[in-house]
Every structure is written in C-alpha cells, then in structure tokens.
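User: Quick sanity check before I run a bigger batch. Here is a single chain. Can you write out its predicted 3D structure?
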Amino acid sequence: VEDMVTPDSCVCRTDEGRLVENLRESMLETVIPRGEADWVMVVQGEHRGKIGRILEREPGQSRALVQLERDGNARVVPLDYDAICHYVGGGEDD
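Assistant: Done. Predicted structure follows.
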C-alpha cells in the first residue's frame, strides 16, 4: 500500500512497480512474511502501528505470536493474520 486516498480506498504498488489506484480493502490480501527475521507491522487493534517480529505461526488458527520490538518491554502478543502485515521499513537495529 502506497497511500490511503480515502478511508475506503488506497493506491498500491505491484511487485513489478506499477501503481494501481482506487483499490478497496476487500480487493486486498494480507501478506504474512515467511522468513524468520522478517518484520511485521500491526495494522488493527490496540497495538496498531507497532513493529515486531513473528516468533511463531499458528496457520490453523490464522494467527501468529509477535514480539513487539518497539514496545518498551518487548511484549509477545497473539495476533490474527488480518491484524499484521509484512513491514519493509526496517527495525530498530537497521
């Protein structure tokens, strides 16, 4: 997601670099990183905006245990896949 144009629509960039406008949430799919060292951002709920790393995946329940790195005490919280997304902005140590 490149930009939220309205609360209901956004602009996204494809893997090929093409911009696609006027996309609705129902048209998007949550991307959960597969790598062990990949970062995620919480996009829903009380921890919204926090960055962390997936410690454990629970695919049968569509959730993951996430350690919130920038949360002062580095809490581990269970989060639904829909509440997190792959974060490519780097971590605290980047």
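The longest strand covers residues 51-58.

User: Great, the batch can go ahead then.
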